[in-house]
Amino acid sequence: MTTSNSREATQTPYLLLEEAKIKKNVASLYDHINKLGCYVRPHLKTLRSLQAASLLLKDLSSPATVSTLAEAEAFASAGYLDLLYAVGIEPHKLDRVIELSKNGATIHILLDSVTQAKAVVECAAEREFQFSAFIEIDCDGHRGGILPDNALLLEIGRILESGGVSVTGVLTHAGESYHCQTQAEIQKAARNECLAALTAARHLREAGIRCPVVSVGSTPTAHRVDDLSGITEVRAGVFSTFDLFMKNVGVCTTEDIAISVVTTVIGHNLEKRWLFVDAGWMALSRDRGTASQVEDYGYGLVCDMEGKPLNYTVASVSQEHGIVILPEDDKCGPENFPLGTRLRILPNHACATASMHDVYRVKQNDEVDLQLWDRIRGW
Amino acid sequence: MTTSNSREATQTPYLLLEEAKIKKNVASLYDHINKLGCYVRPHLKTLRSLQAASLLLKDLSSPATVSTLAEAEAFASAGYLDLLYAVGIEPHKLDRVIELSKNGATIHILLDSVTQAKAVVECAAEREFQFSAFIEIDCDGHRGGILPDNALLLEIGRILESGGVSVTGVLTHAGESYHCQTQAEIQKAARNECLAALTAARHLREAGIRCPVVSVGSTPTAHRVDDLSGITEVRAGVFSTFDLFMKNVGVCTTEDIAISVVTTVIGHNLEKRWLFVDAGWMALSRDRGTASQVEDYGYGLVCDMEGKPLNYTVASVSQEHGIVILPEDDKCGPENFPLGTRLRILPNHACATASMHDVYRVKQNDEVDLQLWDRIRGW
What is the mean pLDDT of residues B49-63? Predict the structure, then answer.
């Protein structure tokens, strides 16, 4: 395997993406959601890459979600027009939102309090700018948002509307679905997520506030939802590459995982049956999300270079070292992995592992050369 | 507080360094080690920055340690001449080591096996290059290295020497000292670390292999060692900024910690007494090193903007959200931290938190403007 940059190609660790798998994962979820009458507003925070976004967004007007204004800036610069900044807005950030909108993009903001609504209205008046806001609804106590029946919902809606801020929609995220144990539980979480968003939208509309968009989503619920009546759009992020956490949640298989860290065996401890690899937490991240799940993959699942799982995990990491401990009863010992052997590590959490890298090396179809995709960094 | 880049200055999260504290931490350890007759070969992997390195290295010939060839390349380009790449070498990386040496720098490599020694000798002959090698010694079973009394030590030494590779030294790292419970235990680990390195050096020298350098070190043992007879140099990395993990190990106080993430309150859950801040794991890292220590700081200790600890921790994180849970019995509630409040978070692990950022904002003396320091990235 070589790349367009041959010296770089032989250097590990690096992050490998498989484009064909990403395309398959995307098509599969989009097909499911489209059949239920909605569109997907993909979360671009996992890969944070213009090239990757082009696999997720049909054209420049396709709706997308971002987690930082740095992403919004990069995607708006590339011409994308419909970006939802899905983290609660605070006043220091409003100027950047206004600046971003100058080239024609709409940057929807998110809020869930009277204080935020008042700050946005004040800025809108001062800067003579028309903001577009989503109100965040809490469906499961996971993180932010207000409960759909909370009277503050209407108060926020009225402050915004009377202040000239568009109440574009309500938004909720079933974050607790990540901890579901069964597919039935995920389905229940999906129904609950829809119910919370629909209830909030109904309250707003009954009070005369337009609220055209009803936005729900998380990768687990998006895959298991079976009724999207009344819902406008579904958000999901990690589904494009998947990871071991989502494999444990039951919404993908290890074969669907499109992201891995390529590493090299740099040493052995023969007595302890240890392999040292050059992927430490700097390449894999410190994420141990699978530790509390049905199968604990340590710091990642070891595969051969064709992507076949070898059923060993990275047991521990330091900054630039990973340690793979081979099982005692296995016929395969450290001697089967000589110095210089290349391996691939499937990550616990794609977003976290991707965040450790500045560049992706991408396998496209059957091409031998790997393409380089840049990652958007910072805030 | 403003910076040279005013828009950036008001945007959070960002990573703040306090230069005066770094200088104090560096002077304190160097003084201790110099008094014991040795010099410090600082590990530059924590901050990976040319500007930070200038606080740690007196001049271009000062010895330094790096954890990646990307660091070696950046520091060699800046003129530094004595760099130890302290991760086991594998053959694919030797060409970069040779290339790096062309401008006059010595890049010492590290190895602990006959296989590595043979590969290095083979490359040395083929490329007519004089490598400088350290042999890694295992003092506590923590990670790599061979035991000082293992007969392989001499075999490796002889292969290298007869192959024209300089055996510059032996190196050991008391990685298990991070888990010591008392200062007496750290002192014991320090003595054991020295003993392992001295024993290995003696074996090599008795066999006629020169081995001029005896290198030991870890941040805990470097601070508690009281006798360095026979030792040449001491390595340590995280001591320049320290962190909550090292505070728990007992080698610094929270006041000594020179690194923090500046964040903004972006929302509240008043019933649950939650503050939402815009520092999630993307800004803080996923490191939970203090979870198994005497005091668990969650994802970091919350301080005011003057750096005074408020005794709240970041209880949970998602990608761009942190949640601070205020205690029930505390007179200070979420209303005391209005939307837009700036806070500083001390990190569990400086190396991991720094790795999430591309740039440092540095407070120098009493200057109001923050300086920007770049971070070296990748491998």
Answer: 98
What pLDDT, on a 0 to 100 scale, did the predictor assign at position B149?
98
In three state form, how does the secondary structure of B36-52 look? Answer: CCCEECCECCCCCCHHH
* Contacts of B27 by beta carbon, 8 Å cutoff, 6+ apart: none
If 0-12 CB within 10 Å is exposed, 13-18 middle and 19+ buried, where does residue B7 land?
A: exposed
Residues A34 and A178 in one domain: yes
The reported pTM is: 0.96
**Domain span holding position B306:** 254-374
Tokens of A175: 């974050």
Q: Check which CATH number belongs to the domain holding B184 and give it.
A: 3.20.20.10
**B59: Cα separation from own chain's centroid:** 20
Determine, yes or no, domain membership for A247. no
A12 located within any domain: no
Report chain A residues whose CB lies below 8 A from the CB of B11.
69, 92-93, 96, 379
Query: Which of chain B's residues have a Cβ under 8 Å away from the Cβ of A116?
Result: 267, 339
Specify the pLDDT at position A137: 98
Chain B residues within an 8 Å CB radius of A265: 90
Give A179's DSSP letter: G
Residue A331 pLDDT class (50, 70, 90 cuts): confident
Whether B325 and B262 map to the same domain: the answer is yes
Pairing between β-strand A106-111 and β-strand A132-137 as defined by DSSP bridges: parallel
Task: For residue A320, give the nearest of B68, B269, B285 by CB distance.
Answer: B68
pLDDT classification of B7: cutoffs 50, 70, 90: very low
Domain boundary among B180, B213, B242: B242
How confident is residue A344, by pLDDT bands cut at 50, 70 and 90? very high
Dump pLDDT digits (tens) for A299-325.
999 999 999 999 899 999 999 999 999
DSSP per position, B157-195: HHHHHHTT-EEEEEEE--GGGGG-SSHHHHHHHHHHHHH
What letter does residue A34 receive in the DSSP assignment? H
Task: Count how many Cα atoms sit within 13 Å of the Cα of residue B158 in the half-sphere of its side chain.
Answer: 8
Percent above pLDDT 70 for chain B: 98
Asked if the C-beta of B276 comes within 8 angstroms of chain A's C-beta atoms, the answer is: yes
Domain count, chain A: 2
Confidence of residue B1 (pLDDT cuts 50, 70, 90): very low
